[in-house]
Amino acid sequence: xxxxxxxxxxxxxxxxxxxxxxxxxxxxxxxxxxxxxxxxxxxxxxxxxxxxxxxxxxxxxxxxxxxxxxxxxxxxxxxxxxxxxxxxxxxxxxxxxxxxxxxxxxxxxxxxxxxxxxxxxxxxxxxxxxxxxxxxxxxxxxxxxxxxxxxxxxxxxxxxxxxxxxxxxxxxxxxxxxx
Length: 179
Prior knowledge:
Elements: H1 2-44, E1 46-47, E2 53-63, E3 66-75, E4 81-84, E5 88-92, E6 98-99, E7 104-105, E8 113-116, E9 121-129, E10 146-150, E11 158-161, E12 171-172, E13 176-177
Parallel strand pairs: 1-4, 7-12
Antiparallel strand pairs: 2-3, 3-9, 4-8, 5-6, 5-10, 9-12, 9-13, 10-11
C-alpha cells in the first residue's frame, strides 16, 4: 500500500512538472509569436528610402505662366513603406551644380500619410514658372539637365532628366498617393 501511494505521488509530481513545462513552452511560443508579428508590422511600415524607390517625370500641365510636372516615386522594394510630407527638389545644371534655390513648398494640397506597397506610386507636383514672364536676368541663364529630389525623411536624392530654367516661384507640392 505504501509503495502504491509513493508511486501515485511520484506520478502526480511528474504530471505537475510536465504541465509546468508545457505551460512554460506555451508562454515562450506566445512571446515569439508577438515578437514576429511586431517585426512583420515594423518592416511593413518602414520609411521609404531611395534604395527602394525609382523616380520618373510624369505628365506636364500648363496654367497661368507655370508648367506643372508630376514627379512619380514608385516603390521598387519587396515590402510596404511609408512617406509623408514634402520632398526637397533642386534643379541641376550640366556642370553638376544646383541652379537657384530649392523648390518652395506649396500649402495645398495638405500633406497626407502614404503607405506604398511594392510597385505602388506617390507623386509630388513641381511648378516651373516660365522665364518669359520675368525681366531679363531674374531667371537662370542656363537650363537644367536634371532635377534631384530628396524624398521626405531622406538624405539621398533621386534624379530625372528635366530641362527648364530656374525662376523665382519654383515650387513643389506635398507627397500625394498615385501618379
